[in-house]
Amino acid sequence: MIRRAAPAAPARHTPWRAGAAAVIRAVRTVGWYLDSVVGGQDYQRYVAHMRRVHPDKPIADKSAYWRERYADAERNPGARCC
User: Fold this and answer.
1) Cα torsion at 53, 57, 62, 63 (round to 10°)?
2) Which stretches of 3-80 are DSSP H helices?
3) Which of 4-8, 47-51, 57-61 has the lowest mean pLDDT?
4) Longest C-alpha distance within the chain, in Å?
5) In this structure, are residues 43 and 62 in contact, taking their beta carbons and an 8 Å threshold?
6) pLDDT at 28
7) Each residue's pLDDT tens digit, 31-57
8) Mean pLDDT over all residues of the chain?
9) Separation of CA 9 from chain center
10) How far apart are CA 40 and CA 59, in angstroms?
11) pLDDT > 70: what percent of the chain?
12) Residue 6 phi, psi dihedral angles, 5° rounding
């Protein structure tokens, strides 16, 4: 006689798991926001723009992009606090 394994019990969703998931989502959202504020996604947007609008021009590497961006900010201070 072949015995079959008993079906697995359904996963229980305890209240702390739902709370932990909400906290993790909140931390990820805050991290994404802060990354956006300090310019973390700017290089990726630059690369996407160059590929879409200027496909024939070379794309600067990350360090060259940031050097040029900081130099431009020094040349044109605009509306910044310092």
Assistant:
1) -140
2) 15-37, 42-53, 62-75
3) 4-8
4) 84
5) yes
6) 93
7) 988 888 887 889 999 999 999 999 999
8) 85
9) 37
10) 18
11) 82
12) -70, 145
Rounded Cα distance, 68 and 66, in Å:
5
Q: Which amino acid is at 57?
A: K
- Distance (Å, rounded) from C-alpha 28 to C-alpha 23? 9
> In whole angstroms, what is the distance from residue 52 CA to residue 64 CA?
20
Task: Classify 47 as helix, strand or coil.
Answer: helix
CA 23 remoteness from chain centre: 18
Alpha-carbon distance of 26 to 10, in angstroms, equals: 27
Give the length of the chain. 82
Record the pTM. 0.55
Confidence at residue 10, expressed as pLDDT on a 0 to 100 scale: 62
Supply 44's token pair: 């990726």
